[in-house]
Amino acid sequence: MLPQSGFAGFTSSSRFSSLAIVPAAILALGLAGCQPAAAAPPPSSGGQASAPFASPPVLSGTPDVATLVAKVNPSVVNITAVHDVKQRRIPFPFDFGEVFPQQGRPRERDSVTRQRALGTGFIVDANGHIATNAHVVEEADRVRVRLADKREYDAKVVGRDANLDLAVLELQGAPNKELPVASLGVSEGVRVGEYVVAIGNPFGLGHTVTMGIVSAKGRSIGASQYDDFIQTDASINPGNSGGPLFDLKGQVVGINTAINPQGKGIGFAIPIDALKEVLPQLLTTGHVARGRLGVSIQEIDPTLAKALGLDRPRGALVGDVDPGGPADKAGLRSGDVILEVDKDQIDDAQELPRVVARHAPGSRVTLKVLRNKSTQSVDITLDKLKDPVADNGDGGDSAPDAPRKGNAAPTGYGIALGDAPGGGSRVQRVQPGAPADELLAPGDVIIEVNHQAVANATETAKALQAAPKGTVLLKVKREGHTKYVAIDRN
């Protein structure tokens, strides 16, 4: 999004550029009179003079971007979203309302500040529906859409999905049969290194074309739990939000969404497959209903994989299980590793929310789970995903340390332990350079060692000392959440 005040930055530089050309132009005119007349171009072999500015043909093996843009550009639209912000203010002290107040009180007036945001979108069907980013039209009171041929229409928001940052608009009063519709491709098949073209409305300049390649896929930038961005070096700037990312077939493979302000040539686009999955719901109900499993999960690194009995890091490690939730009712446990959902493999933890979200609430799925180094199947009926609620912790782990009974016996892992309120042992200190350094932190509460519960610091120290050489697996409470930590000690 871009406030309309962004145009101001271009005025002075444009004047400077124009003025800079003038002396060179005068010099060129002055010299022109001193030059002899140019000789006529020699005739071609066919007896006809060749055109002096003939366009060369597109070289074999290079993309004909100009033809591609001419084909797809009409389906791209510019979006202006207006949001009126009302503020109450007291009038200037010398206003008559202040000098002669009614009923002894100064008269208040409403001040309306009009905020504009600029973005991009593309037409997805002949009924005048347009896809864009949800943040482009967030809290908009009015939305105006400008087509490539300069026709303008009002639009209404018919659906929003904040989790994916997607929105669908509907043009008002547009002749549907005359609308150019974008072709939606398949982002799953896009390859890293493939050429892509972005078209959008950067800085309110209107239809602007940039080209680059797909730099990476499956990027997570912390926008939501469903992050699965296409990274591209095609230039994307404020105002490009919601615009299409085309492949060389002229099909939309992504929706330009985010940029990294610290780096050049690093932009992110939502895969078009994500839009295609939720578009029917956005058109019919205006929102998206997703399935909910009811667990917290964490990534599995090589050390954890070794401790859990995996051949390599894969799957999603279950930390907490919501009491009474779908996973709890199905018997899923903390420490289980989810490897598959209905035969869809889970290669890393961030894939699990996206795979589960593809299933509707109430649907039944089968999980392939690794438990105690053996696999089993668990059938779960999904609940409806609710908006996340901030977790302030249960109070136990964030309470002050219990009175120390002195440091526990040496553990061999470079940590000092004390008894924790409610059971387990609280990490008091971590020795720099020790095996536990950067894996455990003061305040962590160890509640299990190699799947065996520990009630206090003494039990924890004994369990650590008795652990066989190699990797030990700890179950830890950190800031109210369960986390597994694997530590190597050779």
UniProtKB/TrEMBL annotation:
Domain PDZ: 282-373, 405-479
One example GO MF annotation: hydrolase activity
Annotated localization: Periplasm
InterPro entries noted in UniProt: Chloro_Bact_Ser_Proteases (IPR051201), PDZ (IPR001478), PDZ_6 (IPR041489), PDZ_sf (IPR036034), Pept_S1C_Do (IPR011782), Peptidase_S1_PA (IPR009003), Peptidase_S1C (IPR001940)
Span of the signal peptide: 1-39
Region (Disordered): 383-410
Coiled coil: none
Its EC number(s): 3.4.21.107
Keywords (A to Z) from UniProt: Hydrolase, Periplasm, Protease, Repeat, Serine protease, Signal
Source organism: Pendulispora brunnea
CDD domains, per the entry: cpPDZ1_DegP-like
Leading EC class: hydrolase
Listed name of the protein: Do family serine endopeptidase
